[in-house]
Each structure stands twice: as C-alpha cells, then as structure tokens.
Amino acid sequence: PVGAGSLVDVMPWLQYFPNPVRAVFENFKGLNRDFYTFIRDKALQHRETFRADTVRDIMDAFIQIIDYEKTVSDKGVKLEREYVDSTVTDIFGASQDTLSTALTWIILFLVWRSDVQERLQHEMDRVLGRDRIPTIDDKPHMPYLTAFLFESLRFSSFVPITIPHCTTTDTQLNGYHIAKDTVVFVNQWSVNHDPDKWLQPETFDPGRFLNENGSLNQDLLSSVMIFSLGKRRCIGDELSKMQLFLFTSILMHQCTITGNPTRS
C-alpha cells in the first residue's frame, strides 16, 4: 500500500487515462483521505477531553506541547495542530503494513530455523526465567534476539525499494548528474545483499552481528537498511524496532512455533 503510487510518481501521465495503475493510485488516494479524516476526528475528540494532568497517548502529548508553547515568548518554530494530524497519520499508516509484514517474516524464519528459535528461548530462560514476561528494559541483555531481528530485516529486505523522493536541486552522486525534480528511490535490497559488505549475504545467520565475546557489532547493525537514510528516513524507525523486540521476545518466551506437519 505504501508504494501504490510509485509508478504514477515516475510517469505522472498514467493518472490521466483509464488503466490499472490509475485505479490503484486513485484507491490509494481515497484511503489516505479517509484515514486522515479519521485521525483528524480523533484529534478533535482528544482536544475536547484533554486533561493536562493525564497524558493518555501520543495525541495528548502533542496537545500538551502546543498548549505549553502558547505560554512562552519564543518566536522560533512551534508545533502546529495540522502537523500533529499529519505526524500521527504517518506513524499509524506506515506502521500497520510494515510491522505486520515484518512479523510475518519473523515467524517464517522461526519455523524455518528451529535451531535459531531454540537458541532464542535459551537466552530468554537465562535472562528472564519463567517468572515474568520480557520488557524493553531487558533488550540490552538479549544480544542474540537483537541479532536475529536485524538479520530478519536484512535477509528479507521486505521493503526492497523505498517510497519515491525528489531531488530539490541539481546534484552529483558518484559521478552521475541528477537534475532537479528527478524522482529517486533507494534500493535497500541491494544494500542489504551486497557481497562486498556482507559475508555470504544469501545465508540467514544472526550470528554475523555478534562479536567473539557475544556482544553486538554496532557497525554491522547500522549497515542494515530498512528505514531508508538521512533526514527523510522513516520517523518510526526506533518505535518499530522497539515493537518488534517486544512482540518477538514475548512470543518466544511463551510459545514454540512449528510448521503445519500436514503441509510441505
């Protein structure tokens, strides 16, 4: 859904006559309008029921910041209500599809590699025991789980090409001239499967992210590209990683996942 308009961005004339791409693009625009209206209505409901001493969620936190900024004399950039609606729309809209797809791949890898699943469960038992479920505070003590999540993101590269962006000025990149207003994409799959960067990139190996002492190789972790790069990278980067950790750790702590024995 996120990339449904990509062909129209590259070839805008496709939206002016009947064709399958135009139909998908129009449906995508309609969904965006409906979803934005839903978020805007929720924002109005939050404003009507807002209490400064009880912050219920991210929408309340934004309202609290807006109200505070009205009381200070600073003339700098301030948070406006329309930015709140757009930001919350981006967070919810992008996370629904991306997180569900990531979790589908994670479950597939757990079924495929029972040895990896068993090692994850051993790490859970060592760190947590059976008396409580994982929390985000446990993350620094579970390096193999973090390595598994990053390898799942790298190996699947389930967002192989980013949503389209546009150059704001003429520029040069690796000797190539890119004119202003050129539509550009990032090929994340290529980055994550580059044999010059990754040893045996077509092998699923969470251990590649661990040093000899079992700690995480931070340089290699930062080389995985799934949320794009730079100032226009996905705003849900850290939130998504936190949610994936919680979903996967709780799942592994409570369950063992196997494939359907009646299906190959």
UniProtKB/TrEMBL annotation:
Needed cofactors: heme
Domain of life: Eukaryota
Annotated heme binding sites: 234
One Pfam entry name: p450
PROSITE patterns named among the record's database cross-references: CYTOCHROME_P450
Keywords, alphabetical: Heme, Iron, Metal-binding, Monooxygenase, Oxidoreductase
InterPro entries cross-referenced by the UniProt entry: Cyt_P450 (IPR001128), Cyt_P450_CS (IPR017972), Cyt_P450_E_grp-I (IPR002401), Cyt_P450_sf (IPR036396)
Molecular function via GO: heme binding; iron ion binding; steroid 17-alpha-monooxygenase activity
UniProt GO BP: hormone biosynthetic process; progesterone metabolic process
Family: Belongs to the cytochrome P450 family.
Name of protein: Cytochrome P450 1B1-like protein
Species this protein is from: Callorhinchus milii
